[in-house]
Write a structure and sequence with these properties.
mainly alpha, transmembrane, 6 helices, 247 residues, transmembrane helix, 80% helix
Length: 247
């Protein structure tokens, strides 16, 4: 997917989520009005039952709104992550990779201007230097790019799952409003809303766990990759004979 297409999809997904959230707020308000209007007319046992169910529904929705406020502050940006991934390749991996051929023996100025045992010893160090330069892209920047691209995809999947979770929630609250249009239907309407909210909460928690697990896995793999002692032999290869790897 091109950067422009991803940015367009991102804007459409966020826009749709915002519209759906507005619908949740409006339908919850309408349901609240119906319940509050009818509760005083219910027989005491039914009123207690409906009040208890309504409180549980409100608790479920309070958790939802806490979650939404956190997401609204920083929803994440797949397109921005893709831009950062591309920057690692374009500004670091690519330029460094382009320098790899210049480290070959026979292409350095010392090949023409330097001779003797010292020059021979220095040339012997070049393969390790070349390999280290190669690994900057293949091991470091490519790994960072893959992780950022992967997290961008994870966010798109999460947002899509959020929409899939919200739509039935709205439908369930709308059904509860219809059921609560008569006083006698209020207890049933309240428990329809409660069941819908509880189901949505489960779906939301699953989506959050999947996102967190995926991001944690990518982060762990990246840290392991960047921390491997095999990269550069545990440090940058020495530039002088007998010298230790640079750290």
């Amino acid at each position: 997917m091109s950067d422009a297409a991803l940015a367009t999809m991102e804007a459409e997904l966020i826009g749709k989520i915002l519209r759906l959230v507005d619908q949740i707020e409006e339908k919850t308000r309408l349901l609240h009005q119906a319940v509050e209007r009818g509760l005083p007319f219910l027989p005491p046992p039914m009123r207690m039952q409906a009040t208890s169910g309504w409180q549980r529904f409100c608790d479920e929705m309070a958790d939802w709104w806490r979650f939404w406020r956190e997401v609204a502050v920083n929803p994440g940006s797949p397109s921005r992550l893709r831009d950062l991934a591309a920057a690692w390749t374009e500004r670091v991996g690519g330029p460094v990779s382009g320098e790899v051929p210049t480290v070959d023996a026979g292409r350095l100025s010392v090949d023409d201007n330097w001779d003797g045992d010292a020059a021979t010893a220095y040339r012997a160090l070049l393969p390790a230097q070349k390999d280290a330069l190669t690994q900057i892209k293949t091991t470091l920047t490519d790994s960072i790019t893959d992780a950022l691209d992967g997290i961008a995809n994870d966010l798109v999947v999460f947002w899509t799952a959020l929409i899939v979770m919200i739509v039935p929630l709205i439908a369930g609250i709308a059904g509860a409003i219809s059921t609560s249009s008569t006083v006698i239907g209020i207890p049933v309407g309240v428990f329809i809303a409660l069941g819908t909210a509880a189901t949505a909460a489960v779906a939301l928690n699953v989506a959050i766990m999947i996102l967190k697990s995926s991001v944690d896995s990518r982060t762990t793999k990246l840290r392991q990759k960047l921390g491997e002692d095999t990269v550069f032999g545990g440090g940058w290869p020495p530039t002088a004979t007998g010298g230790p790897p640079l750290r």
